[in-house]
User: What shape does this take?
Amino acid sequence: MAVLPQLRDRRENTVSDARRFFFELGQTPEAGLAAPVLRSWQRCRTDGLDHLDAYLIDPAGRAQLSDARDRSARLLEHAGGIMEHVFEQIRASGSMVILADTRGMILHCLGDPDFVGRAQRVALQPGASWDEHVRGTNAIGTAILESAPVEIHGAEHYLERNGFLTCSAAPVFNAQGRIAGVLDISGDSRNNQRHTLGLVRLSVQLLEKRLFEAEFAREIRIAFHPRPEYVGSLQEAMLAVDADGRIVGANPVAREWLGLGAGLAEAPSFGTLFRTGFGQLLDRAANAPDDLLLLEMRRGEAVYVQVRGHRRTRPEAPAARLQDAAPQAAKAAAKTADGSKHRITLDCLATGDARLQLALDRARRVQGKDIPLLIQGESGVGKELFARAFHNSGVRSDGPFVALNCAAIPENLIESELFGYVGGAFTGARREGAVGKLQQAHGGTLFLDEIGDMPLGMQARLLRVLQERSVTPIGSMKSIPVDISLVCATHRVLRDAVKQGLFREDLYYRVNSLTVTLPPLRERTDIRSIVANLLELESADRHSGPIDISEEVMSFFERYPWPGNVRQLQNVIRVAVALLDDNEHEIASIHLPEELFGIDGEDGGEAFAPAASMSGGSVAAATATPTPVAATGARSLDEIELDAIATVMREVGGNVSAAARRLGVSRNTLYRKLGRMG
Assistant: This one.
C-alpha cells in the first residue's frame, strides 16, 4: 500500500524545513527527522561531507568486487534465494533488492530494468561503496553504523543527488552478534511503500536463521521460546551448544533475550542458563526427539525447548521448509496445551473446587448455542485450557480450534493474521495470499486470547464480522461466510477498559454474552487434586515407579500464594520430578525450586516445618538431632534448608562438590547459601 499523497507531501515539507535549518542556518532541527537520520547528518557534517557534492566515486574494479564477494561467500550463498523471493514480491514496482557487505560495498542486486538504469547514475550498483563516510546518509551505510534497521526517504539522504531514492535496510547479524552484511530495498521516492521496511526485516530474520543453521549444522542446536507456537518460527531463540555444554553461538533473538553482547568471550554455559542439566536434556530429547520440552531458566522464566542436531538420536533430516515449521509447532503446542495426548474436556477440569465447578456448569449450558463465551482470570489460571476443553466438549469438537493471542502479535500484523489477505494486497504479501484465523476457524471455535489488548481499529472490523457472519480478506472485495463459535479471554476488566475508551462498548456487549471467571490457584480448594494430576502427567516418562509428595510439602503447597497460578505449580512439580534420583520416590523440600524458599505462604499462614535428615540421596530430616517444632516454634523453609545443608556437609566431611551433587544444586549456589550461614 503506497503512502497517501497528502501524507507524503506533508513529510516532504517537514524534511525540507529540517534541511533548511541544518544546511542553511547551521541549526539542529527540533522536529521533522527521525533520530537515526539526525545522528547521521551530524556525523556527515563532522566528516566534512558537502551535501551539494555531485562528484561520483567510481565503483570498485572487477578484482576488488570478486575479493569482496569471496569474503562474504557464505552470506551470498544463503542470501541469493531470499533476494529472488523478495524481488518477486516487489517486481514491477520500480525497485531493486540489494545485498552489501560490512563495509557497505554492494555485492549483488536484482531490480526492475527501468529503475536499475536510474540507480546506476548515482552508483547504486555492484562494486560501489555506500559507506556513510563516502555517500552520506543512506540506508545501507547508516544501518551499519546504527546497527539497526533504518528507512531513508527522499530528502533525508544527506547528498542532494540521492534525494530521488527511498531506501529501507537492515543489518544481518551472525551467530557471534556481529554484522555480516546488509539487505536493502531501494526505489523511487514517489512510490514509497509503508511495508517495505517490514519486508526487509522479515527477510533478514530468515537469512539470519539460515546462516545460523548452516554454521552450526554439526552442533547441537537448542531452539526455545516462552510460547510453544513460536518454536519453529522466525521469532524463536536459538543456541548452538557443543558436546560439553558450552554455548558457541546464539541467534539475534537469543542474544537480545539473554542480554549477550557481541562475541562469545563471556558467553555462559547451558547449565548457567537452565535449571535442567545439559545431559539430562539430551536424554529427554532422545526419548522424544520431535517434542517440545518445558524447561525452567535460572532467572525464573519457563520456556519451551526443542533439541535439534542431537547425535544420540537418528540423524537429523534436512531442514524443513519454513512454511512447514509453523504447522508442526502448532501441533506440538496443541499437545502441550492439552497437557496429555487425550482430548481435554470440561469434565476433565472438574477437580472439586466450587467456584471452578460453577464456571464449568455455566459453560456447559451455552454449548451448541450461538452465545460467545468470555473467560476472565489472572495470568496462568488456565484460560486457554478452559477454552480448549469447552471446544472439545461441544458439538464443534470435530472442527478446528484456532487460537490467536492479540497481545503477542504486532499491531501492524494482527489485521492480516485475523482476516487474511489476497495475493498482492501489499508489499511483502505472498502471491497466493493467506487465509486468516477467522476463515481457519470455520466450522469450529475461534479463541481470541487477551482480547482486551486488541487495537481499536481491529475491534471495529471484528464487530462487523460478528454481526454479518462474513469476513473480507485484505485487498479483496468479496465477503466470505464464516461459521464460528467465539471464545475470548482476558486478564483485564473490560468494563473499565470501555470507560477509559480502550475497548469498544458495542464489541464488549457482543463478546460478553456469558462471562465465567476462573479463580486464582491461591483461592482454590482442590490443590491436592491438581497436584496429583500434574504429578501423574510430569512423571509419565519416569520408569522407576510412582512418585508421592510428602505431607509437609503438600501442606506448604496449600498455603503458598502461587502468583503464577497453575502454570507456576506445574513448573514447580516438573522441576521437583527432574531433581529426584532414580531411587527416590517422594518429593521433599530439597527438591523444590530455590525461589520458593523463604516464602511461607500468605500473611498469617502457618510456617512450613517438615522433618529433615539426609538418608542416602533424599532429605528426611534437617538436623542430626531434630529440634521439636513445639519447643522452638514453627520454622521457615529458609531455616529448614540451611539445616539440611549443614547435615549434608557433615555427612560428606565438608566436601562442597559432593554436597552440591547430593543436594541437586550448583557449587556456586551452595557457596552462596553457606555464606548466609556465617
Summary: The longest strand covers residues 179-188. The two ends are 67 Å apart (CA to CA).
